[in-house]
Amino acid sequence: MTETVNPPGQPVLREMRWWDIEPVLELEKDLFPEDAWSRGMFWSDLAHARGPEATRRYLVAVDRRDDGDGNAGERIVGYAGLAAAGDLADVQTIAVARDHWGTGLGGRLLTELLRAATAFECAEVMLECRIDNVRAQKLYERFGFEAIGFRRGYYQPGNVDALVMRLTDPTTSVAGTQGTETNG
Asked: Residue 167's pLDDT is what?
């Protein structure tokens, strides 16, 4: 994947690269201050997202808008990652900048992750979501994910439980998103 078809006025989705790690970390720390991923975690996962034996897919959403003063620039406003092993995929991370909530960007990122899971020939997709992140849970439910359990104290240091969710057929979920607008 290089860049996906971009709806007019919407951020461009593209593969995450090593030079994206610093701006992604800034967004990560803003959105998940208590349990943000480290630089090393992103480096490690990106190392497994390249080459013919790649088992991961990481994306960034880049807003390429004018700043209002006639200066064009780029800003990472979202990112997402997926890991695959055998016929099982796991959504590692998905995040959208607060000023892009409700624009459908979360749904676009999730759609691309599910396409990756389908390309990796995964029959199921799993994820964990903070129990207090109702916005994310609703997004996942719209895509067909179902709650299957909890992981007590999963998110540290806050000791917040994780809701474990599963999607049993990513191909039908991706097919169902064609031409629809989702929030996220």
From this structure: 97
Per-residue pLDDT tens for 27-70? 999 999 888 899 999 998 888 776 666 789 999 999 987 666 66
Give the pLDDT score at 19: 94
Name the one residue in this structure whose structure tokens are 């996942």: 140
> What confidence tens digit (pLDDT) does each residue in 123-143 have?
999 999 999 999 999 999 999
3-class DSSP string for the chain: CCECCCCCCCCEEEECCHHHHHHHHHHHHHHCCCCCCCHHHHHHHHHCCCCCCCCEEEEEEEECCECCCCCECCEEEEEEEEEEECCEEEEEEEEECHHHCCCCHHHHHHHHHHHHHHHCCCCEEEEEEECCCHHHHHHHHHCCCEEEEEEEEEECCCCEEEEEEEECCHHHHHHHHCCCCCCC
